[in-house]
TrEMBL record:
Pfam families: HTH_Tnp_1. It comes from Mediterraneibacter gnavus. One of its GO terms (biological process) is DNA transposition. It comes from the Bacteria. One of its GO terms (molecular function) is sequence-specific DNA binding. This is Transposase.
Amino acid sequence: MRSKRISAEEQYRLIMECRQSGLTDHQWCVEHDIKPGTFYNWVKRLRQKGCVDLPASTGHSYRAPESQEVVRVDFHDTDPLPYEQPLNVIPVATERNNLSVAEPMKLSVGSFHLTIPNGTDPQLLAQTLRIVKELGC
C-alpha cells in the first residue's frame, strides 16, 4: 500500500521542522513515523528543484538512548515502634489560651526540636520519633 502523497510545501515544512529540532534526521524521522529514506528523497528532490535554503543535517548517525537500569527495591520495616512505647519527649511549654487549632505540635527531645504539622500520618511520626531516639538527640 502506498503512502499518501505529500506536497512539496509540506515536505519543505517537515524538513525545516526536523532540522530545527536539534535531533538527528534519523531520530526525528523515527519520532514522526517517517521513513528516513523517504525524508532524504524529499531533501534531494527539493535541492534539485533549486531549494538551496535547506539547513544542513545535524548528523545522520543514530545513537540509541542510554538505557536505564531498573532495579526493584523492597522496603521492610523490621523494627516498628509500637505506639504505646513511651519516649522521653518533653513538649515545648505553651499556654492553653494561646494555642489555636491550626498551630503545629512542637516537641523537644534533648537538644533536638521538632515541629509536627497537624494531620501528620501517625506511622510517619512514630518512625521519625524512633529515629530521633536512636540518634540519641
